[in-house]
Amino acid sequence: MVKVITYGTYDLLHYGHIKLLERAKALGDYLIVGVTADDFDRQRGKINVQQTLEERVAAVKATGIADKIIVEEYEGQKIDDIKRYEVDIFTVGSDWEGYFDYLNEFCKVVYLPRTQGVSSSDLRAEKGSVKIGMLGYSSFLDKVYNESKFVNAVNVTALCSSDFTKLEEVQKEISFSTDCYGAMLDNVDAVYIHSHPTLHYDEICHALKKGKHVLCESPIALQKKQYDELIQLAEKNNLILMEAIRTAYMLAYSRLLLIVKSGKIGKVVSVDATCTSLRTYGNFGEKSKKWGSMEGWGPTALLPIFQILGTDYTEINFFTVEDKSYPGTDAFTKVNLNYPDVTATIKVGTGVKSEGELIVSGTKGYIYVPAPWWKTDYFEVRYENPENNKRQFYQLEGDGIRYELVEFAHAIQNGNAEFYINRNVTKAIVGVMEKFRNRNC
């Protein structure tokens, strides 16, 4: 019996996939089809897949062509599978010609002609993309625009700013730019907001009342009452209001949370997060209001604390150093949060530099994430006996913004904006920001 094996993502299974599977089956007597796992696709930078692994496997199975379906989960698995299943022929489409020649050491490699004129990418494009408008005045919007180019499901088509001095380059690339927020909203499906936190509530309200989905940099609001109002408005209008903390959408960070929750380091007793940068405010528009340390870094530093320890802290205190160059903003803030039997600390700074690490301490071991931990692609699980330590590596493309945009598009499609950051966490972050602003009252 001649065994044949082939692999693919098989997203939005189409005629071209089926023809390729039929040709693969014709090469032998028994066809094994490997379907790529969701995590494996993300690790390879394939972030535009719209269907889940379960849906893709079911679609391949429904064709009746495959004799066996397996899941491809790691780099190099093809060699293991060829040996394990005693495969005679490996085959893929001709667009990979030459790439898999190294497998000739283990079996015969055959490149099959692709069916012209059809692809999953084309089908995803036909389904339409979300037209997004960007609102803000920081050069960070350049990054967002450039990252959006990697996401099939979104298309940044408009830009609104009260100060374009740091947005001249991106302004040239976007067809519609204006200083009128309402005019921009009339031309998009959704809005990404990266403005000063004091403006978020009004800007989100305006967008939701106009029937637009919202992705807003955290904090979404500066009062819990305001946050509740925004959620009610989004629900009333059947819209997505999603918090933009890019760390939450990175694969390594989500795996870190799963390891903690599974008890690998025992009971967590402390979480310590540090986020600092020596900012010159050069990336802000000349007439624009500047961020302080808590406004810029606070939500990111608070994210792992609330996702690991929960939101029911019993005590909070702040130590702050004012930024004398910009009165009313903080150059450095340390926040201590105490729970009944655990504790947490964050240190954030725009005028102070420290090691930007994350440490999660448990009764059996601890997790260490080196600087800059908010761009997580690597962390270590450490124990008393160093021989038991585990190092975890995950692919991170760009600054992680593209993953955030992918999940925003998914949230619009399936109506769930809480998969990565639930509302309790978002509201707790808003609550800390509210306490910080009222600390001297």
UniProtKB/TrEMBL annotation:
Residues 5-125 form the Cytidyltransferase-like domain. Residues 131-243 form the Gfo/Idh/MocA-like oxidoreductase N-terminal domain. The keyword Lipid metabolism does not apply. Keywords: Nucleotidyltransferase, Oxidoreductase, Transferase. InterPro entries: Cyt_trans-like (IPR004821), Gfo/Idh/MocA-like_OxRdtase_N (IPR000683), Gfo/Idh/MocA_domain (IPR050984), NAD(P)-bd_dom_sf (IPR036291), Rossmann-like_a/b/a_fold (IPR014729). GO terms for molecular function: nucleotide binding; nucleotidyltransferase activity; oxidoreductase activity. It comes from the Bacteria. The keyword Nucleotidyltransferase applies. Belongs to the Gfo/Idh/MocA family. This is Adenylyltransferase/cytidyltransferase family protein. It comes from Pseudoramibacter porci.
